[in-house]
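> run fold YCII-related domain-containing protein
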Amino acid sequence: MKYMMFVCTDSEPDTDTAELPDIHTWVAENDARGRRLDGDQLAATSAATTVRVRNGELLVCDGPFTETKEVIVGYDLLECADLDEAIEIARTHPMAREGRIELRPFFSPRG
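> ok
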């Protein structure tokens, strides 16, 4: 089952002073096991563009909305047996402590 793992900042990071896991080790381990299919860091929010259409009119905005406190800073595409495995993978990502991780399964019309 495929999961999109959104890597996000968080306004309330973990206060544990223990050393964070190494991101390069995390990537290498999950790539080697075939659990991470793709992933990357995203450019700064100042490079973002928001596109909407309202009443047939194209609305394009640069950057994030000012009230945004948490932003997506990266992603990983995971292949997992189930949600439990996806949670275990996300739990070991450094940003699970410094930020937050959102897991979302891909939509399947077959249920």
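Strands lie at 2-8, 36-41, 49-54, 57-62, 72-79, 100-105.
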